Amino acid sequence: MIDIDKYEGHTEGPWKHVYQPWGGIDYIMSPHEDCVAKIDNGDKSSAENRADALLVADAPLLLEEVKRLRPMADELIAIWEILEEDYPQVDRAIVKELIERKIGDYEVIE
């Protein structure tokens, strides 16, 4: 599991990716236009650099998704443990249905 406590106090998002072709540098900017990260393209291909920069820019969104999904994962593990302990011969279709119901309780963000 990822220790998300170490990210407390990070610069709030959303972050945006800005590429400056004349310097060959990707910048990740905060909503207040402060530079959060600077990625020197070095010897990597521009496609690889762009993918790296976009991943860094999406870090706040990815962190929020981890925070949103963690309670669901904990609940699903608890359901599985209860079923496994109390009903070792339980029909896997029932487990699948319970999990699908539980997942339905969470809003899907697109």
Topology at a glance:
Blueprint: E1 16-20, E2 25-29, E3 35-40, H1 46-57, H2 59-86, H3 92-104
Antiparallel strand pairs: 1-2, 2-3
What does this structure look like?
The chain has 110 residues and is of the alpha+beta class. The protein has two domains: 13-57, no CATH class; 63-104, no CATH class. The protein is 48% helix and 15% strand. It contains three helices and three strands. The protein has helices spanning 46-57, 59-86, 92-104, and strands at residues 16-20, 25-29, 35-40. A three-stranded antiparallel beta sheet has the order 1-2-3, with helices on one face. Strand 2 (25-29) and strand 3 (35-40) form a beta hairpin. The model has no long low-confidence stretch (mean pLDDT 79).
Contiguous low-pLDDT stretches (5 residues minimum) are none
> In angstroms, what is the radius of gyration?
20 Å
| Relative strand content | 5-15%
Note the run of SSEs as H and E: EEEHHH
Mean pLDDT: 79
Which secondary-structure class do the elements indicate? alpha+beta
Main sheet summary: 3 strands, antiparallel
Describe the strand arrangement of the main beta sheet, using strand numbers.
1-2-3
Globally, the shape reads elongated
Helix content: 40-55%
User: How many domains would you count in the coordinates?
Assistant: 2
Total number of helices: 3
Report the count of strand segments.
3
Distance between the termini: 23 Å
Which key terms come to mind for this protein?
alpha+beta, elongated, 110 residues, 2 domains
